Amino acid sequence: MIRNKLLPCKYYQKLMKRIAVDMDGVLADVYEQFYAYDERDFGRRKQPEEVMGMHEAEAFPSIRKFIYENGFFLNTPVMQGSQDVLKRLNEKYEVFIVSSATEFPQSLPEKQSWLGQHFPFITWQQMVFCGSKHIISADIMIDDQFRNLDSFKGQTLLFTQPHNINNREHQHTRVDSWQDIERLLLR
Ligand SMILES: [Mg+2]
Question: Which of 23, 63, 92, 142 is most buried, taking the most CB atoms under 10 A from its CB?
């Protein structure tokens, strides 16, 4: 199907499944930022085994300071493999990038700029910066946080991150990489 980006959503939304894609911990490799900022402040880079299975704030006690710093979100590395797969998902699905961002107001322009830089095929109409994700309605949600997935009504993909890696008691489909997402949604 040829998708005309100039058409309002209402003309094609019934034809494609809608996916809500998280940013931090899914598109954006925020753990790389946590490691780097923690090393900057404490003089030693933590090893992965020191943070595996821990809540982010437990693993990185200064995390609240880091994420309020200018440039934290703007300079976050892109998750490996995400650009190519999301570009192809964007041709087959109605993609929305959904980020719980309003808690950190300084992150809003940084996140929009970051998406424009690394995912230029995502239009402003596809960016949803919100508080709670409970209001999000879609067919599929890709997220790394149980608090977002547990109340979602559609298909849920849990993106593996250090904080959720040990939790096996859930009903979500775990994906360890964007290659896993590709296998599930593009084949
Ligand atoms: Mg996240």
Answer: 142
